[in-house]
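Sequence only, no structure available. Ideas?
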Amino acid sequence: MAVASTSLVSQLSGPKTLSYSNFSGLRRSCPKLDQSQSLSTTQSLFEHLHLSSSRKPSRGVVAMAGTGKFFVGGNWKCNGTKDSITKLVADLNSAKLEADVDVVVAPPFVYLDLVKSSLTDRIEISAQNSWVGKGGAFTGEISVEQLKDIGCKWVILGHSERRHVIGEDDQFIGKKAAYALNEGLGVIACIGEKLEERESGKTFDVCYQQLKAFADAVPSWENVVIAYEPVWAIGTGKVASPQQAQEVHVAIRDWLKNNVSADVASKIRIIYGGSVNGGNSAELAKEEDIDGFLVGGASLKGPEFATIINSVTSKKVAA
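Reply:
I predicted one. C-alpha cells follow.
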C-alpha cells in the first residue's frame, strides 16, 4: 500500500499544459518559418521541441561534469500516517539497493523519530525544513539542534513550496542554509523556475539568483547538494527532458565554477527533481551532469523508489 500524495501544484505552476510555441525555456526565441514551407502543426511543434531540448547550452556555458557520488533523496512532504509510513519503511528495509548511492528520505516532522528508529542505517534521514537560528520562542518551528538530537543528517531548504506558498525569500533561505551547515547538518538546496519564468526565457536568471543567495551565505559547499527542480514539473507529471535538465545542470555547474571555484563546481552534486519516477529515472540518470534525484510522489512507493535509486546503473553504462 503506497502513501497517498496530495500536490499543491495547482497553486504553483499555472496552466496544466505547457506552451512550447515560442520559447526555448532558457531565453526567448522567435523562430521565423519560410512562408513557402507547408509544415503541419504537428511537424512544426515536433521540430521546435527537438531544437529547444537538444541545442547546446546558451551564454557560453562549458560542460564540466561532476565527480560526486550519486545521490537520491525522497521528500515525503505532508503525506502519510503511522500505519502507511511503517509499511513504507518495511518496503525500503527489504529493498535491494545499489551500494554506490547516497540515499536520504525526508518524512514529515511528526514521524522523523519513528522512521529513524525503524529504517535501515543504509538510508539517512532528512528534515523538510529548519529554523534560521537557535530554537526558542518560535511557534511551529523546528530547530537544527532538535533535528540533530533525533539523528537527522540533512535538511531540505529552498523547496518551491516553501518559496511560493509559505513566502520564504532567497536571503532568508540562504541564512537558514548557513545556520544548518554551521551546526553540522547537510543541506539539500533547492532552486528552480516557475512556468512563466521559463516561458519568458528567465530560467538561467532565476537559478543564478537563487544560487547567489546560497553562495553569499554558506560557510562551505562541502555538505551541500543542489537540487534543480523546475516548479512547472513538480507534481504535474510533466518532467523536463533529459536534455533540458542536463542543459540547466551544466549552467549551474558553470556558474559555480565562475562565481565560487572550479573545485566546488567539480565536486558538488547537482540532482534533478520534478515528476521523477521509475519509468523516466534511467534516461535522466544517463546525462553527465545529473548526479541523482530529489523525488516526491514516487518516493512514497517503496519498490518504485528503489528502482529510482538503482537507476545509478544507467549512469555507469553511460559512462
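The CA atoms of residues 116 and 125 lie 7 Å apart.
Hope that gets you unstuck.
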